[in-house]
Design brief:
By secondary structure, the chain is an all-beta fold. It has one domain (3-89). It is built from no helices and 7 strands. A 4-stranded mixed beta sheet has the order 3-4-6-7, with no helix packed on it. A 3-stranded antiparallel beta sheet has the order 1-2-5, with no helix packed on it. β6 and β7 form a beta hairpin. The two termini are 24 Å apart.
Amino acid sequence: MENLEVLPGKTADELIIHVTGNLPTACSQLTLTANLADGTNKIEVMAYSSEPADKMCAQVLTAFDEQISVPGLKNGSYDVYFNGELVQTSSVPLLAK
């Protein structure tokens, strides 16, 4: 991951997680998930790549630019973790900077 950005969603109770970076090969596939940990104000964003086992892949960095929605949030402050590391604290509704 090169950058993780928290954006306002289409509704006041939603955040959009925007992630950019590079995958290790031309045929890598990205899996991106975002979940609210039960009973907490912790949003856990997980990303990993997978390779097809039956294919030879060029070892060339391949850019990705993905967004994932986290809906149904109550007003308050949320810690956003990426692959287990705290990267940002955001509020719902997201206030303009």
